[in-house]
Amino acid sequence: MNLVDEQIAVITGAARGIGRAIALRFAANGAHIVVSDVDEAGAQATAAEIEALGRQALAIKTDVSVANEAENLIKATVERFGRIDILVNNAGITRDSLLMRMDEAQWDAVIRVNLKGTFNCIKAVSRPMMKQRQGRIINISSVVGVMGNAGQANYAASKAGVIGLTKSAAKELAARNILVNAVAPGYIETEMTRNLPAEAVETFRTLIPLQRQGMPEDVADVCLFLAGPLSAYVTGQVIHVDGGMVM
Ligand SMILES: NC(=O)c1ccc[n+]([C@@H]2O[C@H](COP(=O)([O-])OP(=O)(O)OC[C@H]3O[C@@H](n4cnc5c(N)ncnc54)[C@H](O)[C@@H]3O)[C@@H](O)[C@H]2O)c1
């Protein structure tokens, strides 16, 4: 059963990592994908992989933190495909530092991409989805937004903000049959976590009951559930994909 057959999905930050895994998982389940990223070459590479799976793909360079770029992304999607069924707000960055040393630029950059970028894309997509009277929005948060993390005050605040944004959007959009949920990954093997200090990696490992690092595909599978018919009565939720780190 193709869970998202012929659906049109926009995925931000899909040049690599978790976003790329979501794009490929959705395409393997029948969706056509708009691959969006600041990294244009990476977005095109993911789009080529989707086309190789026999699905349509469109790569669009977008900085989600800029409101009119987010608007253009959604506009270009509707122009090409006539509608938009699924939005995954996955683009995210870290600028880690202890609070005392964190400068304004580090704080602003992370809030701008992770939180404002998610708001920009939700706002842009809400009008076409409301017209359609259907849609799915999936926001990638983090366990750090729930637990906090030393050295990541900016990131934790942005990801906690994404949870509040998710619940508010879920309440505002439910009457139009637009479901909005968040996924909170734990410690997932991607470029983002590749350069963590060894002691941070060890601390994470001791906190994971399933005793392994997650893979991008573990996150993609839960996003597929939230994008498809098996989650028709689920909205405003935060689903942890973290090997049991937070329970
Ligand atoms: N890896 C983890 O352990 C982990 C854990 C929890 C949450 N997350 C979240 O999952 C999401 C994906 O993370 P990842 O590990 O794949 O990271 P990654 O760094 O491998 O990929 C992030 C992608 O987002 C893109 N991006 C960055 N800024 C952007 C912008 N302004 N506009 C558009 N695209 C932009 C990057 O170019 C990159 O392709 C992020 O939101 C991250 O916070 C990751």
Q: What can you see in these coordinates?
A:
With 247 residues, the chain is α/β, with parallel strands linked by helices. 48% of the residues lie in helices and 15% in strands. The chain has helices at residues 17-28, 40-52, 67-81, 104-132, 144-147, 153-173, 191-194, 198-206, 216-227; strands at residues 8-12, 32-37, 57-61, 86-89, 135-140, 178-185, 238-241. Strand 4, helix 4 and strand 5 (135-140) form a beta-alpha-beta unit. The longest helix has 29 residues, at 104-132. The chain is globular. The mean pLDDT is 97. It binds nicotinamide-adenine-dinucleotide. Nicotinamide-adenine-dinucleotide binds at residues 12-13, 15-19, 37-39, 42, 62-65, 90-93, 113, 117, 140, 142, 185, 187-188, 190-193.
Percentage beta strand: 15-25%
Q: What is the CATH architecture annotation?
A: 3-Layer(aba) Sandwich
Please write the CATH class name: Alpha Beta
For the biggest β-sheet, the strand order reads 3-2-1-4-5-6-7
Number of strands: 7
Largest beta-sheet details: 7 strands, parallel
CATH topology: Rossmann fold
Please tell me the overall pLDDT.
97
Backbone shape = globular
Radius of gyration: 17 Å
CATH superfamily: NAD(P)-binding Rossmann-like Domain
Low-confidence stretches: none
Helical residue percent band: 40-55%
- Helix/strand-derived category reads alpha/beta
Summarize the structure.
Helices cover 48% and strands 15% of the residues. It is of the alpha/beta class and 247 residues long.
